[in-house]
Amino acid sequence: MAGPCSARLQGDVAAFTAALRTLVNNPQFSDVMFVVGQEQQKVFAHRCVLVCRCQAFRGMLSQAPVGSQDSSSSVPPQGPFILGNVQPEVFLAVIEFLYTNSVTLNSHIALEVLTSSVEYGLQDLCKLCVKFIKDTLSVEQVCEALQAAVTYGQVDLQQHCLDFIEGCTAVRWQAVVRTQGFRELSDVVLARVLRSDRLAVDELDLVQAVREWAHVSSAVLERPVPEVAALPVRELRLPLLAPSELVTLESYNQQDLLIPVEHIAAAWRAHALRRGSGVPSRLCRPRRGTRPRDHHRHLEPHAK
Fold first, then answer.
1. What is the C-alpha separation between 129 and 110, in angstroms, rounded?
2. Which helix (H) or strand (E) holds 70?
3. Confidence at residue 276, expressed as pLDDT on a 0 to 100 scale
4. What is the pLDDT of residue 52?
5. Contacts of residue 196, Cβ cutoff 8 Å, sequence gap at least 6
6. What parts of the chain have a pLDDT lower than 70?
7. Global pTM?
8. What pLDDT was estimated at residue 299?
9. What is the DSSP string of 221-282?
10. Are 238 and 266 in contact (CB under 8 A)?
11. Which residue(s) pair with 41 in the sheet?
């Protein structure tokens, strides 16, 4: 005789999700409360949902009460839990995901929700954030997104941001460098951008962008301009500049010492010898947006 048959059947997922959504930040039957952000907004939740969906919350909600002598106490901490460093809208997006496995995002909070997804170890939420950021990427957000991608090891998002920047026209590049995100790029990330052959920007404009970035970073980090700019400056292709442009560059450089004198000397040497000897080959390669100069034809054999 055949044994009993068994199967797992699934009902209407949408109805189930909609029902759980009604519990998001609903004080009815809630047994845990968070006080979130500078606004100290109260957010209500249910321990069983948070604990089964997120290891970080399991740890938070399982800690013994302050002053307890028994670290294994079964009495959960009563809260409220103070989360002062996260926006309420961001935290509510995380809670929404935990209850419904979906999330409502907009361009103002997506990067911060990405940050929270990493902090809470929510890989599926992280993937949703990355997809949204890629689909809605703009000039205003690309540098901030690139920095976040590098910080959190999101290689796919990092490459997407670099492709976006490389696809910018010279006019859009000027819009990019005026953003707060560009000014807040780390030296490592800016150097990575400047390593590209595909930037549709002339070298003179890149030098100016690095100079402005360096002065902001110097003020924020309270470190000298040459120190904060050391990495990005190595990627500037000074041999591409004409002699008259190098003269002007030297004049500006006397004021802030942005570029080491040996880098400028190497560019002058390339002009004098009419070849790129002694200069790394990448620094002699014109970029996609490099304006032609007469001396570039002498650098071409070296680039090959």
1. 6
2. none
3. 61
4. 96
5. 162, 165, 166, 287
6. 1-2, 63-78, 275-278, 300-304
7. 0.88
8. 80
9. HT--HHHHTHHHHTT--GGGS-HHHHHHHHHHHHHH--S-HHHHHHHHHHHHHTS-TTS-GG
10. yes
11. 36
